[in-house]
Amino acid sequence: MRRLFLILAALLLAAGCSIAGGDAKGRTTVTFRLWDEQVAKAYQQSFAAFEKAHPDIGVQVQVVPWADYWTKLPADVAAGTAADIFWTNTSNFGLYADNGQLLPVEFTGDWTTSVVDLYTRNGKLWGVPQLWDSIALYYNKDLVPDPPTLTWDPAAPDDALRATLRKLTVDSAGRHPGQSGFDPQKTRVYGFNAAFDLQAILWDFVGSNGGTWQSGDTFDFADRPKTVQAVQYVVDLINAEHVAPPAADTNTNGDKALQLFTQGRMALFQSGPYHLKSIQEAAGFQWGVAPLPNGPAGRVGVVHGVAAVASAKTRHRDATVEVLKWIGSADGQRPIAEGGYAFPGVTTAQPVFVDYWKKQGVDLQPFLDSAGGTTFPAPLGPRVGAGQTAYTPILQQVFLGRLGVAEGLRKAQDAGNEAMKG
């Protein structure tokens, strides 16, 4: 048996495979998982520098697409096969922290305070801030020459946002919504990306109308008239105004609106800095960033952050902590900023990111203003992820127009709160 093991070990080492967390160079291997292919490029650069300074530690980057991330991660965490370090968001980390599946962060850094607050639970910090994002309005300069300053009001018969979006939306015959003969089935250019997108669309409209989504550990969106009113407004942009793509195209394809924008088939695209690189690489036109539409309660956007957390079941605790410290430092996050991938979680690295885009002719001030103004809280709680999973298919039916807004929100709220009971 010992001979067989030695033979197998030799074969694996010859193939460059790892045994018990080591690699062919005899280093301890720390695995790192995230969902963003773009930012993974920056981490590869970062870890190359780390490995030069730490020749006894290697870092293996794993990219799991967003579509599969939140189904694969829980199974891997439960089985003890999760990466040593992995990205998480506010909807999911609480459950892992409460169940003792994460290592607490026992060192400090020059990190964005709002992200630190998001990942602090029961008096402990559970994640190292990696990046943050706010929401603003991308615009196609060929279709909208000047930065738009828009207002919206669900109680107004014809508010500025709706009027503008009708002018920007055009079908293959050159007609606009509201004009005789306009065919929504043959839309050539959409005005806006209204869709079932919680972070980029729905919560921002809810917040700027004075509504709420969650109270404590309970969803309350169906109980808030201002929330119902805001959701109705967004759904109407799709199904009544026809200024946004049909929900059948966007409900299950989160990249559809982005693709339409980069193809020149959408004038205004409300989203976060996480799409800057994709737009830069794919758009064949000049574009810019403008402030969010101003609602009855002002401009209110979601500010969210991504953190890197360490598995409590890591077999290489010391090496894992060293990697965490690196990606929590200005040097570790500099490739994220220098490459223009995202606002880094380390505050001293953030000007580098802003300067990168300034050199590209893109002013990121609307994102900074959005983060510094009135914000809408991203949902928190150990079971929020389960609640969102339960209510998502119901709200998708609302956006398809198959379920009334008030009725759908009530059903969604009930399903979400029931799921959060565990």
From TrEMBL:
<keyword id="KW-0732">Signal</keyword>
<dbReference type="GO" id="GO:0055052">
    <property type="term" value="C:ATP-binding cassette (ABC) transporter complex, substrate-binding subunit-containing"/>
</dbReference>
<keyword id="KW-0813">Transport</keyword>
<dbReference type="GO" id="GO:0015768">
    <property type="term" value="P:maltose transport"/>
</dbReference>
<dbReference type="GO" id="GO:1901982">
    <property type="term" value="F:maltose binding"/>
</dbReference>
<dbReference type="InterPro" id="IPR006059">
    <property type="entry name" value="SBP"/>
</dbReference>
<protein>
    <submittedName>
        <fullName>Sugar ABC transporter substrate-binding protein</fullName>
    </submittedName>
</protein>
<comment type="similarity">
    <text>Belongs to the bacterial solute-binding protein 1 family.</text>
</comment>
<dbReference type="Pfam" id="PF01547">
    <property type="entry name" value="SBP_bac_1"/>
</dbReference>
<feature type="signal peptide">
    <location>
        <begin position="1"/>
        <end position="20"/>
    </location>
</feature>
<dbReference type="GO" id="GO:0042956">
    <property type="term" value="P:maltodextrin transmembrane transport"/>
</dbReference>
